[in-house]
Amino acid sequence: MADSMGQEMIIFEDEDLVVINKPAGLVVTNEGRDTLQRTVESWARENQKIKLPRAGIVHRIDKGTSGILLIAKNQKTLDFMKGQFKLRKVVKHYLAIVGGDLPNIGTIKVPIERSKYAFSKFKVGVDGKIAETEFEIMKKFTRGSRVYSWVKIDLKTGRTHQIRVHFSYMGWPLVGDRLYGGEVWENLTRPALHSHEIFIRKAENSEIMRFKADLPEDLVRWQNE
User: Fold this and answer.
1) Element (H, E) at 38
2) pLDDT given for residue 33 in this prediction
3) Would you put residue 178 in left (φ > 0), alpha (ψ -120 to 50) or beta?
4) Does position 2 have pLDDT exceeding 80, yes or no?
5) Which domain holds residue 8?
């Protein structure tokens, strides 16, 4: 990842925090990976000179998901913001394209566990951790004979692959999400999922901060369908 690319990712920066709009396809952490692979963590260490564990990355989003990611510059900010996530005091909104004619609003609340047959895959299961996803339809459009929905998602919990698993379970897989049964469209070969907006405090007495990440090009083209 070149310096120029890293600078283009930055949405906000101050003495405590860096907020980026992560491109789809970029891995977040170095954990379990070849140290030569370019990641958000390696960028934060090299370009931001952050020496905290995992380079101050507060939370994660999937490799194939684009959008907002928070990186703390000091231990105090990192600990506080991670605590906000743990206490579920962070408001997280995602945008997605799903295959299906969904109701205008809804809540999916079923537990998620790791698949016993594929380590990288998760599923709905009675032994899993509770997960809750609220959604609202932004618009619907047809492609061929099928209806698709642009969905705004309010993620109440943060389980791995939660949005992808929940919508697939309901029979509405995300477009481009081959792992969970989604269709692959031209120029959209990753899950059509974008971390669009987040509301969070960076310190105990600070005001709530709102950050918003614009849609990337591979999703923008479908806005007007």
Assistant:
1) none
2) 57
3) alpha
4) no
5) 1-87
Domain with residue 22: its CATH number is 3.30.2350.10
Element (H, E) at 69: strand 66-72
Do 100 and 184 lie in one domain? The reply is yes
pLDDT digits (tens, 9 = 90+) for 71-97: 999 999 999 999 999 999 999 999 999
Which of 64, 87, 110 terminates a domain? The answer is 87
**Same-domain status, 189 and 117:** yes
Q: Is residue 62 annotated as a catalytic residue, yes or no?
A: yes
Summarize pLDDT for 117-126 with one digit per residue, the tens. Answer: 888 899 999 9
- Classified as helix, coil or strand, 11 is strand
Please check whether residue 194 lies inside any domain of the structure: yes
Nearest to 194 by CA among 97, 100, 99, 96: 96
205, two tokens: 């007495």
Q: Which of 3, 14, 34, 62 is catalytic?
A: 62
Residue 194, strand partner residues: 66, 95
pLDDT digits (tens, 9 = 90+) for 41-63: 999 999 899 999 999 999 999 99
- Total domains in the chain come to 2
pLDDT in tens, 132-174: 999 999 999 999 899 999 999 999 999 999 999 999 999 999 9
Task: Indicate whether 28 and 97 sit together in one domain.
Answer: no
* Half-sphere exposure in the Cβ direction for 23 (13 Å, CA): 12
